[in-house]
Amino acid sequence: MTTPRIDASAGTAPADTTLGALRDSGHTHRTVKAELRENLIARLAAGEPTVPGIVGFDDTVLPEVERALLAGHDLVLLGERGQGKTRLIRTLVGLLDEWTPVIAGSELNDHPFDPVSVHARRLVTERGDDTPVTWLHRSRRYGEKLATPDTSVGDLIGDVDPIKVAEGRTLGDPETIHFGLVPRTNRGIVAINELPDLAERIQVALLNVLEERDIQVRGYTLRLPLDLLVVASANPEDYTNRGRIITPLKDRFGAEVRTHYPLELADEIALVEQEARLTWADGSHGEPVVPRHLVQVLARYARAVREAPQVDGRSGVSARFAIAAVETVAASAVRRAAVTGEAPVARVGDLPTVVAASRGKVEFEDTEEGRELEVLDHLLRRAVAQTFRATLAGVDLSGLQAKFGDGHTIYAGDTVPAADLLRQLGTVPGLATILERLDVPDGAESPGLAAAAVEFALEGLHLNRRLAKDADGGRTIYGA
Question: At what angle do helices 320-340 and 265-275 cross, to 10 degrees?
Answer without folding.
Answer: 60
